[in-house]
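Researcher: Last one for today. Full complex below.
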Amino acid sequence: MKELKGACIVGQSGGPTSVINASVYGVVDTALKSPAITQVLGAAHGIKGVLADCLYDMGKEDPQELALLKNTPSSALGSCRYKMKDSEEDDTDYKRILEVFRKHNVRYFFYNGGNDSMDTCNKISKYMQKVGYECRVMGVPKTIDNDLYGTDHCPGFASAAKYIATSCMEVYQDARVYDTGMICIIEIMGRHAGWLAGSAALATAYGAGPDLIYLPETDFDMDKFLADVERIYKEKGNCMVAVSEGIHYADGTFVSEAKTSATDGFGHAQLGGLAAHLAAVVKEKTGAKVRGIELSLLQRCGAHLASETDIEESFMAGKAAVENAVNGITDKMVGFERGTMDGRYLCKTKLLPLTEVANTEKKVPREWINAEGNGVEQPFIDYVLPLIQGEPKLPKIDSLPRFAKLKKIQAE
Amino acid sequence: MKELKGACIVGQSGGPTSVINASVYGVVDTALKSPAITQVLGAAHGIKGVLADCLYDMGKEDPQELALLKNTPSSALGSCRYKMKDSEEDDTDYKRILEVFRKHNVRYFFYNGGNDSMDTCNKISKYMQKVGYECRVMGVPKTIDNDLYGTDHCPGFASAAKYIATSCMEVYQDARVYDTGMICIIEIMGRHAGWLAGSAALATAYGAGPDLIYLPETDFDMDKFLADVERIYKEKGNCMVAVSEGIHYADGTFVSEAKTSATDGFGHAQLGGLAAHLAAVVKEKTGAKVRGIELSLLQRCGAHLASETDIEESFMAGKAAVENAVNGITDKMVGFERGTMDGRYLCKTKLLPLTEVANTEKKVPREWINAEGNGVEQPFIDYVLPLIQGEPKLPKIDSLPRFAKLKKIQAE
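Model: Here's the assembly. Have a good evening.
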């Protein structure tokens, strides 16, 4: 294998996570130490920063600040949601990217994101191959949704799952404090896959979690939901429900968008979202005290509750991307393979073709969801539990988080 | 002082906090060790448990489980919202309480709560004095709202403040990740006092917090609010706002309940609350991407982010109540006095007459709020900062919280 000398670009794309910066740190730290890589550039707001030639010289950052990226939530370089057209249809962006790559002699491109980002990564990789510009392109996965194809799990998922499980356990204590009873509905992210909502079951497995969990993998039936809630509330005097934001009726309509449903007639789903909507419907039906709680952005930026396993694996994914690229690999996404050592959980990296990963979604297997479609089975718990283990040592000042402050010096 | 031998009752009332159980543990642990106290009884759901003679024998609990109360959020004994009538008006409840006290030879009554609970405590104390039943009655403060009269601060406030500040710092990272800009509105508890909303300013003081903060101590003006938000959004490309749930117009109407405001016309404040309402108004006005986040119950049960200072002080409040009562004190609430030792923050207990405390609210001083009414001044930060210090060592199993599990054995 011929050594390829040149600069690298690392960019972040899509919705952030608590640990996405740990992956960027894995890339940057490894790349800065690699003799093949002449300059490490950070793209401002993902591919948009490449198009704008807005690139930060990561070698000019203070190493201590870079190390803080491991515990700094959200995308420190900035993110984007930018859908690239096919190059056959319109190659303007691709030509511009090539121009910027040439200008900085970029020979390594690392893109840190979810499904759409892997699509971007794949398109750029294929274009560079087509025009014969030698550049090794690697995807570094991230997504709290855990829906990337071909990998056992995704960096970012476990920390969000831990945030959700812990918060559910705490809310459980609070939501049954009065003898008058209460129904509590918690809305959890995950538009198409129920990995996050299902993770609320960890709280239940440890004695303080939702009675009912609804995932987008099964069709939602409002009447059955109301019957479930009423039954539990009658039995226990309290009821806690976790719902994925992506739950939908049999016809595919999202419950959050069904503004003219016969069962409610409120028509203001945009005000407060799904939890508030379901809370209103349940209140009307049962007359009980009902509270809807949307975990919102908190669940994807709650770095103070991150899983140390997730942080280390996220770092490892970035590191593996650079190491493999320097060793001649291109056109792949780093994935995870689960194994065991001495009976304990072990995670290794593997490589997946970008073409396969791009735009394929991995859902919760139907057999991991109960027959009723209102809870998950033990294999789901067994799958998630090892991923959330370990508490990071959080850098703090005056008991508040000390996040990385990058200088973001433009590359010349 | 004559030694008074007899049983004690401890009860919890009002909205729970992350550390209210630390106070109960302070009472129970100290009372169990006190020779004067013959039996330690926990009232199920506060005064309602006394009325129902539903009392747990705390001496039968496993000491290790009791110790876990220090890190268990919400009211482990159960809470209530029960307004006692004046005994002159109707003494039915009082006679019943006396009957239960006599039955168990209760000579000490510790009531753990906020404003309304201190009112209950005061009424019971005065009634027992009137009928000549010797019983020492002590209030143990708690409230995330921090609005109890006469005490420097209230147990429970600091942990909620720390949760709010930390969450704001995390959301801040997330809410500016795209180059397209965003306005983020965070709704914080506090119906009449702005201590909690103001605490979001800690996040700003540490470099990642709201640009604007609105407290219920000043009148809210929707047009001025919109102008503030637009100005910041134009300047910075992003804007983060913290609002107290209790913000109100000049005529006293809560913004969350103003359903026919000319600026919005949505009329569905009950769906999703204030943050969603303001988000809708701001979106309509600016056309920007806007997200409303309600911290909801999370902020008052987030024990994983509790302040160690708050936990220790909460315990100390419970302990001081028992020690003082055994030493002959009655009809008081334990309060806190702030001092310094070697230039460092120090907190001591003091005693306040229940009559003075009951039903008086302490608000944020006007001079701690800026002239514009959209932020707080440095003295506010200086006041809160010492209270949030220290990280508790959290008992966990498999990286999830291990909360106390009480047996709750009925007293004979």
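Chain B touches chain A through 69 residues (CB under 8 Å). DSSP finds 13 helices and 13 strands in chain B.
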